[in-house]
Amino acid sequence: MVLFFIGLGLHDEKDISVKGLDIVKHADVVYLENYTSVIDATKERLENFFGKEIILAGRETVEQRAEETILKDAISRKTVLLVMGDPFVATTHADLFLRARKLGIKVEVVHNASIVSAIGITGLQVYKFGKVASIPLQNDDVETPYDILAQNQKLGLHTLFLLDLQPPERFMTVADAIRYLLKTEMKRNEKVFTEKTRCVGVARLGYPSQLIKYGVAKELLKADFGKPVHCLIVPGRLHFMEEEMLAVWK
Questions:
Q1: Which candidate, 144, 124, 143, 145, places its Cα nearest to that of 200?
Q2: Domains of the chain
Q3: Burial (Cβ within 10 Å: 0-12, 13-18, ≥19) of residue 226
Q4: pTM, to two decimals
Q5: How far is it, in rounded angstroms, from Cα 58 to Cα 78?
Q6: Shortest CA distance to 114 belongs to which of 135, 129, 98?
Q7: What tens digit of pLDDT does each residue of 35-82 get?
Q8: Which H/E stretch holds residue 94?
Q9: What is the pLDDT of residue 217?
Q10: Which of 3, 138, 174, 176 measures 20 to 30 Å from 214, CA to CA?
């Protein structure tokens, strides 16, 4: 029948769009993808708000068991996959989109705010960001994020680091990300990231309690950013307006 990908935005159940809310209320089956990010609401609260039973969909369900769960439902019923942020910031959802199309399932998308757009609140111009990098929790032998930072720096572009999470217990912090980059710098010694590198730490973007701090890596390493979700930005070449905005977060 149809599979809807619906973005939930950045904070809680009330960030959904009017269009998205209407679709959920008339859906037959509603899944919530709960491994690429987290929503500031319990399952029970979501079910009360939407008036629907919510099926939690972890990585295994979305990436390995979709044919026997989400896609099986979508063949005959109006099925929704709720996704934090915008549905297609995470590449895993593009894979599900393609699998649905191959099965002849109609796919519709309702977009919403994502970290990629909302990060503009820092004052850094969104179109000056280079390739985005994800830093995994298990990163002892991982150097790709460092390589991406080096590439972006050569072009004068900003680098957004998305930080890994394994809800409900494990969340990478701003300090974890800085320690990872410093550790890789010690190994590579290419002067890509040092304790004096300017950084922007962001926590709970889009929440009433969102926190943004700008300073050098050594300073942010000691800062308390509180609860998840966190991300880290290393600015590239700055326009004077960007410098003025960043000063707000010092």
A1: 124
A2: 2-113 (3.40.1010.10), 116-248 (3.30.950.10)
A3: exposed
A4: 0.94
A5: 20
A6: 129
A7: 999 999 999 999 999 999 999 999 999 999 999 999 999 999 999 999
A8: helix 91-102
A9: 98
A10: 138
